[in-house]
TrEMBL record:
InterPro entries: DapB_N, NAD(P)-bd_dom_sf. GO terms for molecular function: 4-hydroxy-tetrahydrodipicolinate reductase. This is Uncharacterized protein. It comes from Nocardioides simplex. CDD domains: nat-AmDH_N_like.
Length: 350
């Protein structure tokens, strides 16, 4: 089966998904939604550094909805978590399924009006909503959860990510969305009014909720204790200059509280300055399950040895999560989904 797909937004990750979908024999890219006026009217192939496809980008939502795509891959700009709900509701109610790369791994966590609104749109359109991604999406909801399959008991799970942000090329993303270059004395990394916190807290609260739900744990709450570190020297990166004394390393930390105790921890190190890392060469992810027995996993992603493109392994991994999720979201009954524990590569689809 070939899936008719729209790519919504073409930032770094959206462009990676678009490029990989153009290349994939099981995907027919029928539309591209863009935010910037400078991209309107450009061919999808041009935006993705591929041959012309005949599909022209638009910023008209009605044009996108009229395509009646099987799936819209939503890669909207990072903003306060939940700020894309209006777009998703409109897409879902029109009859297209949605895969979001910005969370939505377990919307049941929120309950109330927010969940009801998404569910209603799915029922109206006969559509489904599912998240896809590496974190959120892969390392916690799938890998860490499956790792407990060998455990007789689980006391605590810690998921640690360490990602070098120095190659991020979009200044707005690096400095505004992620918080690099800010004066650490002028921001509170645990204040929800600070942009990065407003974007990330809800997303990763939902991630830990998904893991807790799958492990049969009743979540009391999720609490954070984020930390930022200043760089001691000026750092020149593709997106600009991070001056000495400003934030060069963020450590975002969330803890799932179950029966009054911390049972799940997500710790994310995004850095351009390595001096505050405990490990000089950390793996991309580490999963530590304290239990009977315990489990320790270290995971890195590497590019294919023949691939000479500028795309990173993580971008390919994100695209893989999206493409391998298409059959599941299309086949699902209408509603808000939690991604299956396994959405593997299939040779008969590739």
């Amino acid at each position: 089966m070939t899936y008719r797909v729209v790519q919504w937004a073409t930032g770094a990750m959206g462009k990676a998904a678009l490029r990989s979908m153009i290349d994939h024999p099981g995907v027919d890219v029928v539309g591209v939604y863009v935010y910037g006026a400078g991209k309107v009217g450009r061919d999808a192939g041009e935006l993705a550094n591929r041959a012309p496809t005949g599909v022209l980008a638009t910023n008209d939502v009605d044009e996108i909805l009229a395509l009646k795509a099987d799936v819209v891959v939503h890669a909207g700009r990072l903003g306060p978590y939940g700020s894309h709900d209006d777009d998703l509701v409109r897409i879902l109610a029109s009859g297209s399924n949605v895969i979001s790369i910005n969370g939505y791994s377990h919307p049941e966590h929120w309950g109330g009006e927010r969940l009801a609104r998404l569910q209603k749109a799915c029922q109206e359109g006969g559509s489904s909503l599912m998240g896809a991604g590496l974190n959120p999406g892969f390392i916690a909801e799938q890998v860490a959860t499956v790792a407990t399959s060998v455990c007789l008991s689980v006391d605590h799970i810690e998921i640690v990510e360490a990602a070098d942000a120095s190659e991020v090329r979009n200044p707005a993303y690096l400095f505004d969305a992620l918080g690099f270059g800010a004066d650490p004395a002028s921001v509170d990394p645990n204040d929800l009014s600070w942009g990065p916190v407003s974007s990330l807290n809800g997303m990763y609260e939902e991630t830990l909720s998904a893991v807790a739900h799958r492990l049969g744990m009743t979540l009391d709450r999720v609490e954070s204790d984020h930390v930022v570190h200043a760089t001691a020297r000026d750092l020149e990166v593709p997106a600009g200059v991070i001056p000495a004394g400003t934030i060069g390393h963020t450590n975002w930390r969330w803890h799932a509280i179950v029966d009054g105790e911390r049972r799940l921890t997500m710790s994310i190190h995004w850095y351009v300055d390595r001096s505050h890392l405990d490990d000089a060469e950390p793996p991309l992810w580490r999963v530590d399950v304290t239990g009977h027995p315990g489990v320790r996993i270290a995971i890195d992603m590497v590019k294919h040895p023949d691939d000479l493109s500028r795309m990173g392994a993580e971008q390919y991994g994100l695209a893989g999560q999206v493409i391998n999720g298409l059959p599941f979201v299309v086949a699902a009954e209408p509603g808000v989904l939690t991604r299956p524990l396994a959405t593997p590569f299939r040779a008969d689809y590739a």
